[in-house]
Sequence to fold (670 residues):
Amino acid sequence: MQFSAGSLQDRVVTLAITILVLIVVSSIIWTGKFASWENLSLVLLNLSIDAIVAVGMMILLISGSFDLSVGSVVAFAGGFAAYLMYYWGVYVPVAIIAALGASLVIGLVNGLLVAYIGINPLIQTLAMMGIVRGLALMVSGSGIQNLPTHFEAFGQSVFLGLQTPVWYMLIIVGVFSFLVARTVFFRRYYYIGGNEKAAALSGIRVKRMKVYSFILMSGLAGFAGVVLAGRLGAAMPTTGQGMELRVITAVILGGASLLGGQGKIAGALLGTIFMGLVANIMILARISGYWQQIILGVILILAVASDILMKRRGGVTAKQYLTKTTGIKN
Amino acid sequence: MHYRTKYFLIGLLITGVLMGCDPSKGVYTRDRVEGSESQEVEIDPNEEYVMVTTFVNFPMYVNHDQEAFHRWGRKTGVKTTVLGPSEWDVVQQIAFIEQVIPSKPAGLLINGTDPAIAGAINKAVDAGIPTVVYDSDITDSRRHAFLGTDWYEIGRLQGEAMVELIGGKGKVAYIGLIGQANMESGYQGYRDVMEKYPGIEIIGNFDSKGSTEEAARTTADLISANPDISGISGFDGMTGPGIGLAVKEAGKVGQIKVTTVDWEPEHLRLVREGVIQVLIGQKRELFTWYGAQFLYDMVHNTNMLSDDDDEAGITNVPYSVNTGLLKITAENIDLFDAPQ
Fold:
């Protein structure tokens, strides 16, 4: 098993310290602008959707898989709920439940095909990304506006100075932090990600657990999509594009490994907060869009490079790493 | 009194009377001129105007919108900044708008990419920041002013041009981004024209995914499946060159008529080569130049309409401006792209 509690702890702590340094330095440079409640609450609001998705992605990565269709599911779920409310007059809670149900079905299909048919997660979820994006375009058309007030309240209400998506994020992070750390069911994913064969031999129903993880991932992405549509008061078929890359970057920064077997939900939150802070600082520093791709690319390389170097220290060769993460053997 | 002094005083009196009779020297006008002079604008080079768009590196935005915006900034002596995601990502654009608000720029110039940005625009307005939307209007927002074009009109003009090119009959198709509100409006304008001609069959609406390669592939497939296709129209900046490439590779230059939007160098070259017959262009420089000027005029109260426009709830710039469209064909291309 590759799980290394010490190294993981280091990465979470390192990230937490980096975030703290970023906050202190930015507060000094942009006095009154960065450290204002207005700015920081907006940073949290704008990273909340990614963070909800990152929770599911962290669990998937712990089990040694990932899902590229999450951005499309976000767009589809919001669009489907909006479609039901706007065109069919369906009640808000029913529309939300239907959108979540449809998202769970997408996850079920992904999970079944990956676990039981043996399709590589990269190929399966890449294909699903296209299929679900097409469905999102079908249900949302050019976008659906003028959604019911109750639905907008679902994503726009403010409680104790924070908009609801931030509260949903905090609740989901809190609940899954507890579940992953304390329950046998979720701890099994560490064993599966660490050594799938050993996990199967020890009696864990690996295939079934994999299906559950994909269902959970799509469910969280669907919930994020519905919350986003509520927050915007509109459903757009183009939402969530590029989200998969952002979320995987954040989760790896937060301590996950593409090899599986390690990661914490708090790390997913910290990784997302780090990405959100970097984006905010780029806005405050008025850094041109030309640089954004470069900076985000460098962050991704640093995250993956640190992952490889840590694995190398743990005795995994580069060849083994590539075989495990891509599924390609030579 | 000495006679010279007498003549001088009489001359002075006559001059004064004549000046008083000059309508351009009226009391009211003189007061306004004096008022303007007393409000001599003191330009703060740190006064910052921020443009927030999406797909910030898109060549058309860089060459037209951003170039004019920065040129306006240099001419006016203020700071201009362009922010936004490098992909077409409206949610990220919203994040940019919301996160730029706490830094209190003098004015915000926002690309109206999607109705969903209305909430973010309203937050900027509520924060007291003069906010102008350009390109497509965000009607649900409380923006102070809008400058742009009517996308329905873009579609209508393309449709009319195509009808004329194919003689009112034949198969046509149109390619652009699917799911984008302004373009869907353009498609509607196009379809409304075509529906008047029973001899015209619309094969379908195809997605370019904002990519020249995708537009070329789609066009090639369309030509293979419909060798008798008469015309193809493009609705986003990347599509025109893609259609042109596929038409050239199929050896159907001139046989398949092509209309498209935008007038980047590659579009103009294809018009010169006879591959594209009609370009419908937006006057994008006007969006951002006058958009920025509107912001400046709001900040500096250039045209006060009352003693206190803010208190009176008056926005002292035009509410909505249609900058119009331009049409480029082989006949007038030299005016836009002089031969080297």
